[in-house]
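Readers outside the structure-tokenisation community will struggle with the description of the input data as it stands. Showing the layout once, in full, would remove most of the difficulty. For illustration, here is how one protein appears when written out as sequence plus structure tokens:
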Amino acid sequence: MLEINLQLELHSPDARHTVVLRCPDQPSALSWFSAMHSVTSTLAQQALAEVIQNTARTGVAGSKEIRHLGWLAGKTESEKESWRPVLVVVTEKDLLLYDSLPRGKEAWQSPAHTYPLLATRLVHSGPDRGSPHSGTELFFATRTGTRLGIETHLFRAETTKDLSMWTRHIVNGCHASAEMIKEVTTSCLYGVRNAGW
């Protein structure tokens, strides 16, 4: 028999340690998950307020204002099989990914990955169609245009409310970052000549 939703994983802020809690039945697992999720959501809001206060002068990785932050499970196209905890921060201009919780102002200035919201699009949100438990796992995917091509990331949220909040912050961030841009210059090929537009 396949055991579904009987285990909870807790990761340390530095992402070095994991504790797996196994519950005797699904109602117990759901009760523990709900209690821990409620507490961590409250703590995340407190952490957001502290991070904003502590990085107000310097910003976070070049962006002035944090819109949202939290932990998600994430993977890229190259990591098809493995999920890893990732701290995701939406700022006024960027989507920042951290492998662990930054300690100090300098660490906030050095995310593992920075993706400009202007070049990022939400391309999927909802249950994963290929999931064996379709409807129970909530995903969203982003695509970002980079100098090396398109990068796709898949993120897993824990609740429908979390999924809705993340997708709203990313879509609104993409729109707001586009509104901040007054002028865009790009090169293109017209006929056989290069022209800057």
